[in-house]
Amino acid sequence: MSLTNATPLEVAQSARVGSRKLAVLSTEERNAALTAIHKALAEGKDEVLAANKSDLEAADKAAAGGHLSQSLVKRLDLGKKGKYEDMLQGILDVRDLEDPINKITSRTLLDDNLILSRKTCPIGVLLIIFEARPEVIANISALALKSGNAAILKGGKESSHSFAAIASIISHALSTTAVPSDCLQLVQTHDVIADLLKLDTLIDLCIPRGGNKLVRMVKDSTAIPVLGHADGICCTYLCADYPAEKAIKIIVDAKVSYPAGCNALEQLLIESSGLTTVLPAVAQALLESGVSLRCDAASLSALQKTLDPHSAALLQPSSPSDYDFEFLDLVLAIKTVESVDEAISHINTHSSHHTDAILTLDPEHANRFLAAVDSSSVYWNTSTRMADGQRYGFGTEVGISTNKIHSRGPVGLEGLTIYKWILEGDAQVSAEYGAGGKSWKHEKLAVEGEEWVARSEEEKDVLRRFRTGRGAGLTDV
Amino acid sequence: MSLTNATPLEVAQSARVGSRKLAVLSTEERNAALTAIHKALAEGKDEVLAANKSDLEAADKAAAGGHLSQSLVKRLDLGKKGKYEDMLQGILDVRDLEDPINKITSRTLLDDNLILSRKTCPIGVLLIIFEARPEVIANISALALKSGNAAILKGGKESSHSFAAIASIISHALSTTAVPSDCLQLVQTHDVIADLLKLDTLIDLCIPRGGNKLVRMVKDSTAIPVLGHADGICCTYLCADYPAEKAIKIIVDAKVSYPAGCNALEQLLIESSGLTTVLPAVAQALLESGVSLRCDAASLSALQKTLDPHSAALLQPSSPSDYDFEFLDLVLAIKTVESVDEAISHINTHSSHHTDAILTLDPEHANRFLAAVDSSSVYWNTSTRMADGQRYGFGTEVGISTNKIHSRGPVGLEGLTIYKWILEGDAQVSAEYGAGGKSWKHEKLAVEGEEWVARSEEEKDVLRRFRTGRGAGLTDV
């Protein structure tokens, strides 16, 4: 990693050259680089924490002057209980994931001795813009190297000392490995971003990790593809038939377990026939968890009649803008709808297409909802907070995408790869095929290392019986 | 399909609403719409050809005045031998492809009764900008409907009468089907494009089908993701060890069979040790096919010494800009390189990352080339003209992408789809898992309709013996 003051063009060009070399390194060479980074950061802990202390002192001053929130100051602190060790472990976790590149994902015999393969490969050069949290730099570096991508990193200024210390250690560690150090570059000045965003022939993908404003700014000022989400306005539609106890468990988790998360619940839609049956218990539980409820007229009226006077006094009327807003706080907007179709229509119009849920015992309503809601993740009877790469089993995540192309929902290592088509032949040419000429075979071939597949009902039966033990004797045939 | 003069915002909003309805139609309903369009266009042939005649007359006038090329006039002509019938057949071909949406592509047991599925779905609303060829409108409409996407279409002005006639027929046909007519809208005025390109919250993907200038203009003026290729600068590296006869066959096909194609060869790199062995025969064959050769100093000198005087007189010296140019004509730039590494480096710098080939008998050189060349398609011993969706076995293609995300190389129906994550549970919530709580199972499940896979060496052995007959008795176990 180089900590660079080079021009944006030099940064991008050297990252591009580095990316070509990185792309052809073996799994072992890329993993060895991650091992080296882990070791160096473990040994350099004191150095990084000292730098982090400088950032914290500056942040404390800024916070005292009202220029920075206390929650942001907390997020800067790398010295907190186990945070540094988690960062180190994260590097090894990424190292130990399956290599996402050089996997053959399809193979077709186009004609005799003419074989088309699709092979996964790195995207190339990533531009990753992130906000204050200093541990992100280690996480992103690990993900980029594991997937064979070069990365240009730009972090928030509040963490600049921590970033510089981590970058210097990573840079030194990489110099002992096969990975060119230009593959990871930390740019230090903010004013380079606008110029980097113009370099769409050198940078292949931009991942802004931060708030709505950052993502919008990036999208509006670049021809580089952008992966990310601007908002997390998640909705849950509670049907009248759903048991109150389960509804409380799910909705309280979705709203309260981490209100600042992009997968936190922001809007509760309630079926009108449930206004006085299931809603009051849910509202009571939310109020007891400290959640402010902003209710539409129908739900406000129903809750005022059913809740005790103390709770009812806490209710607030909603305004129309509450249904297009990401609170990121203990605030929930409630809206009454007549049907699953009205819920679907509201969500498709007002949610941010991140994660939306239905709570119902009726499979027909659930299936209609799951099919028609146009969001990255759609849930039946569970909490929107489940939307997370680690929970989905990806091992880690780059972020959550509300894009409609490439990668949608939690993005794991696979989202940092693309593929190339490889065609191997023996002097076949295009003009030989088609009208009056040779025919294409287009026969699907097994991919290397692919599992043996049972191709007929009979073969499936053989496997089934073998697994259930009734075919155990087969090994003696 | 509506032939619309509505405002860009109205067009995009109604396409968005239409796309929601289209996305939940069954395979049969979408296929029935394609059948209806096919039938209507077959019956309306005279009407379309009459409109096409108006376009042709205007084009002939423009060509006579020097404002339009004769090759463009030819491409406008829908009445030419079998062209209309090919267009009609294309609709049925697309209809009969496998449905690309609603396919479960992965399924994971996160915990008991908590199942995560990844299901393919349409992208949403496509904006497709294409140049003159009138039959493209039928092709694109078929691809969009088959994949469940709404499409806003803008064609070149030279085909406006043909487009209007086809759009009116498709519109009438759709009104008898389950597909909302707003799902296909042909916009007629050119000045709406700039406004449409601003609507990135309503339009999900833009596909410009046309020249470099169009693609560049689109990329530079929108936050909508763009799928396509700006240039087709394809290179072939000819090694000294490759037999001249096969080299001639491949290189003549790549250059001559369709010089205006984006997959046509534009640059031949020759290994220096082959300058006087394999190159002269290849150059002679190209000259005999009418190709102008623009040679670097080394190849010019070698060919001047080895070719007969008449042929040698046809050779031209190249200029540096010839190695960054798409000729789209019977012109080929030749460059001498010392090694496979120099060829790789030249191609990664000067090709348009579309399709590049190596011709060699040496597997080590070939593999190095295939791994290191960063192009959508990389070939060993075959013609760059093979880069085509039909040839790759996709049935059809939307176009060829040199993007580094989503879809690369020839784009089939799969490139018009994305996926959503569906999580079905029974009131599990995020706070139950993790430190001190429940553990994730993250167990891969078979996807519906997926083949049974032999998971262990033992199971593979069982299948193997069953197939070779030695386990045939197993059915009686």
TrEMBL record, chains A, B:
Catalytic activity: L-glutamate 5-semialdehyde + phosphate + NADP(+) = L-glutamyl 5-phosphate + NADPH + H(+)
Cross-referenced CDD domains: ALDH_F18-19_ProA-GPR
Entry function: Catalyzes the NADPH dependent reduction of L-gamma-glutamyl 5-phosphate into L-glutamate 5-semialdehyde and phosphate. The product spontaneously undergoes cyclization to form 1-pyrroline-5-carboxylate.
Top-level taxon: Eukaryota
Signal peptide: none
Protein name, UniProt field: glutamate-5-semialdehyde dehydrogenase
InterPro entries per the UniProt record, alphabetical: Ald_DH/histidinol_DH, Ald_DH_C, Ald_DH_N, Aldehyde_DH_dom, G-glutamylP_reductase_CS, GPR_dom
Enzyme class: oxidoreductase
GO BP terms in the entry: L-proline biosynthetic process
Domain Aldehyde dehydrogenase: 11-286
PANTHER family registered for this protein in UniProt: DELTA-1-PYRROLINE-5-CARBOXYLATE SYNTHASE (PTHR11063:SF8), GLUTAMATE SEMIALDEHYDE DEHYDROGENASE (PTHR11063)
Pfam families, per the entry: Aldedh (PF00171)
Origin organism lineage: Eukaryota, Fungi, Dikarya, Ascomycota, Pezizomycotina
EC number: 1.2.1.41
NADP keyword on record: yes
Sample GO molecular function, one term: glutamate-5-semialdehyde dehydrogenase activity
Pathway where it operates: Amino-acid biosynthesis; L-proline biosynthesis; L-glutamate 5-semialdehyde from L-glutamate: step 2/2
Organism: Clohesyomyces aquaticus
Keyword annotations of the record: Amino-acid biosynthesis, NADP, Oxidoreductase, Proline biosynthesis
Family, per entry: Belongs to the gamma-glutamyl phosphate reductase family.
